[in-house]
Write a structure and sequence with these properties.
The termini are far apart. By secondary structure, the chain is an alpha/beta fold. Helix 8 crosses helix 9. The relative contact order is 0.13. 22% of the residues lie in helices and 33% in strands. The longest helix is centred in the C-terminal third of the chain and has 14 residues.
Length: 378
């Protein structure tokens, strides 16, 4: 239970291993539970907050100053804030940006997002890097209690492993994003937690995007007469996404050009017969180096994932849909960051080429998707 307020109250953050941090409330006052993760982006906090992939996660910002540019109505990636809680060190007292219409503190409070400020986020981040992402609670106001009671609440919260969350954040009704200018192609996009900028990037390239619920069927996909099919980012454990995997296999069987991002990359991995696993603390931020193995080019990219595909890096794999290879790899830890089929028009990446927020190094991937549809049409 939360209440909106602009006054700060004593607050405490409790990790499931018992580590505790004390600070002041930020945003709403009350209690929240989730998985503690950290994001290394120095900018783009509004896009982070509204990314559906952060559903049920308490996000720790490693940048010390947050809220400097306030909140506007142009940058959200969805219709609401999705993070379960928010952790910052030094919140801005007065926002300064010509587009700002309100403070971040007020926006968090208005949407019932419980946060904490004034804690050592560097120490917390180092703890999560060493111990791994774990369950956490933020407590303030009437939710405060003895530490052993708070720890009991945290440990009773559900784990992220085994969580099936895509349907909780996806649209319940289909909608269409029209092409900008002349319509060149039609794409069916399966919403597993899609960000608003993704269909926009396709629309910029003359693509009409039909966004479908996560529960869509193969028949509903092909009722849009698609030139290509897209599987979006989203929250939760890909090991639970059996419906999405079956859906993707149906698309692969038909040989329709296919593109997946983030959760969509993990779904493609599973559809090809690879496993997935939980990363120790994941990749989250807008400054992650990834190598395109085909060109040797290194891209600075935006990430938000706590799971990864378990595929061999240096061999071509035989799958039920032909040969597949790892197309991209993270230079920090050699995690699989992309897959490509060699005998069918399908590829995916683990990161976010829509650049909201983030660099534009990977924008070419949307052009690659267009090229697959052009080749298929020819």
């Amino acid at each position: 239970m939360t209440t909106a307020t602009t006054r700060t109250h004593p607050a405490v953050l409790v990790l499931e291993d018992g580590r505790t941090f004390r600070g002041r409330s930020y945003g709403a006052v009350g209690q929240t539970l989730g998985e503690a993760v950290f994001s290394t982006g120095m900018t783009g906090y509004q896009e982070t907050l509204t990314d559906p992939s952060y559903h049920r996660q308490v996000v720790v910002m490693t940048a010390p100053h947050i809220g400097n540019t306030g909140v506007n109505d142009e940058d959200p990636e969805s219709g609401r804030i999705w993070v379960a809680g928010y952790v910052v060190r030094d919140p801005a007292r007065v926002p300064s940006n010509w587009r700002s219409t309100r403070t971040l503190d007020d926006e968090l409070a208005a949407q019932g997002v419980v946060g904490i400020s004034g804690i050592d986020t560097r120490a917390l981040t180092r703890h999560l890097r060493e111990r791994g992402a774990m369950r956490v609670g933020i407590f303030s106001g009437d939710a405060l209690a003895a530490e052993d009671e708070l720890l009991t609440r945290v440990r009773a919260a559900p784990q992220m492993s085994g969580a099936d969350l895509a349907a909780e954040v996806a649209t319940t009704e289909p909608y269409t994003v029209p092409a900008q200018g002349e319509r060149r192609f039609t794409v069916a996009a399966v919403d597993l937690g899609i960000k608003g900028m993704t269909p926009h990037r396709m629309a910029e390239r003359g693509i009409e995007v039909h966004v479908l619920p996560a529960t869509a069927t193969v028949e509903e996909i092909y009722a849009t007469a698609p030139d290509g099919v897209f599987f979006s980012n989203g929250p939760g454990d890909p090991a639970t996404a059996d419906h999405a995997v079956a859906l993707m296999r149906g698309v692969l069987e038909r040989g329709t050009p296919l593109f997946g991002i983030c959760f969509g990359n993990q779904i493609l991995g599973r559809a090809l017969g690879f496993g997935t696993y939980k990363l120790k603390y994941g990749h989250r931020g807008i400054n992650q180096p990834v190598k395109d193995r085909a060109t040797g080019k290194v891209e600075v990219t935006a990430h938000n994932h706590g799971f990864a595909v378990d595929a061999p890096l240096d061999t071509v794999s035989d799958t039920p849909f032909g040969r597949a290879e790892v197309s991209h790899v993270c230079l920090n830890d050699n995690v699989v960051e992309g897959l490509r089929l060699l005998d069918r028009p399908a590829f995916s990446v683990q990161y976010h080429p829509e650049a909201a927020a983030g660099p534009h190094d990977a924008a070419y991937l949307f052009d690659r998707f267009v090229s697959l549809m052009e080749d298929q049409r020819a």
